[in-house]
Specification:
Helix content: 40-55%
Number of helices: 3
Shape: globular
Strand order of the largest sheet: 2-3-1-4
Largest sheet: 4 strands, antiparallel
CATH architecture: 2-Layer Sandwich
CATH superfamily: Ribosomal protein S6/Translation elongation factor EF1B
Distance between the termini: 27 Å
Strand content: 35-45%
């Protein structure tokens, strides 16, 4: 199964601290035998509405392949426990979403 997760990190952190947090989640996924397909940093973006009295947040996307569905609940639990993470979403990609993700990555690579 291929999944992707998008999460928003608190803007109070520096960019280095935000990247460190992302790397900790990538390491977590690798430790659970997930294969990382891509990582994207979308940078500091304005939020549609205030979250925890913040107007902006660092957006990150991680696409990964994993066959252990229990790992997804572990990942979401770690997001929930982390004060740095303001919001997150983990979705399973169907075949059409996978095609779209591949096209998007190819465009970014150019």
């Amino acid at each position: 199964m291929i999944y992707e997760t998008v999460f928003i990190i608190n803007p109070v952190l520096s960019e280095d601290q935000a990247k460190e947090a992302v790397n900790s989640y990538v390491d977590f996924l690798k430790s659970k035998k997930a294969k990382i397909i891509s990582e994207e940093s979308w940078g500091l973006k304005k939020l549609a509405y205030h979250i925890q009295n913040k107007k902006t947040g660092f957006y990150f996307l991680v696409e990964f392949e994993c066959n252990d569905s229990n790992m997804i609940s572990d990942l979401e639990l770690s997001f929930k426990r982390d004060e740095k993470i303001m919001r997150w979403l983990v979705v399973k990609l169907d075949k059409n979403a996978q095609k779209y993700a591949n096209r998007r990555r190819e465009k970014l690579a150019k």
